[in-house]
Amino acid sequence: MTASIKHCKKLDRILRSTGSHWVGNGFPVQTLFAYPELGMVLSPFLLLDYAGPAEFPPTQQRLGVGEHPHRGFETVTIVYSGEVDHRDSAGGCGHIGPGDVQWMTAASGVVHEEFHGHDFAQQGGLFEMIQLWVNLPAKHKMTSPRYQTILDSQIPNVRLPDNQGSVRVIAGEYAGVTGPAQTFTPVHVWDLRLSNAHPVQIPLPEGYTAALLVLKGELHLSQVETPINHAEIAVFERQNTQLCIKQANNVTALLLCGEPIHEPITGSGPFVMNTATEIRQAINDYQSGKMGHLS
Fold first, then answer.
1. H or E stretch including 87?
2. Buried b (16+ CB within 10 A) or exposed e, 176-204
3. Residues 232 and 224: beta-carbon distance below 8 Å
4. Among 216, 205, 179, 219, residue whose Cα is nearest residue 257
5. How does residue 198 score in pLDDT terms, banded at 50, 70 and 90?
6. The pTM is what?
7. How far, in Å, are 14, 86, 223, 253, 283 from residue 10 at the CA level?
8. How far apart are the first and last CA of the chain?
9. Which residues, 6+ apart, have CB-to-CB distance to 252 below 8 Å?
């Protein structure tokens, strides 16, 4: 497959972590982007935390993060290694392991907890996961919460030509294959495995935000000398319709692509709305118990 160079999306910037921190006692996290600085650049994506890879010894302790609220967006958790258990005040619950995805729509407000799976904690092992925050447009921010457990077996895997690798379609559509995640706006989330040195062209919609996170290996883009390495994100300009990869040997990457939401972003901690008044209301609603509690 060959794309004219004029149709290749140009690299806008490369994002790298500037440090790490713990979320609770179970998630050693690098925040690779967040909405206070890059919300409009990466819209509809608000934040991406990369947890691990980290080795956890066997323990009887409950590791993770306890009861906390969200409003105004969705959290998407993708597990590469380890296990995560989820429970929320809207009745959602699930257990996800390698290859599985949890898509939680906080919307009008939900309180939830996330902990390492019981068996994983007892056995110990490698833990690696992504948590992505996806914004909701104003008209959907106060809809009812929902929860989707998406198992690895439910995610279609599309083979690329010439043994170039594969695309797992978590959300959106690739090559006529639709992913299982239900979304409120057009969003494509694809888990890529690129396995040889031949150039790869991946078609993307004109005008959409596009960002590529490399989790394993070294990826070389067309027209760019600097490679994209582990825990780095290539952000592309919205013009043009091809993501042009020159070389990718044994690369694991996550492709995020979505229609921008052209609305104000106002946030405070776990709440992301459009105005400061809405944020104050979210805080009041949480403190008064309107988002529920976990028993």
1. strand 84-88
2. eeebebebbeebbbbbbbbbeebbbbbeb
3. no
4. 205
5. confident
6. 0.95
7. 12, 38, 8, 18, 40
8. 55
9. 80, 191, 192, 193, 214, 215, 216, 217
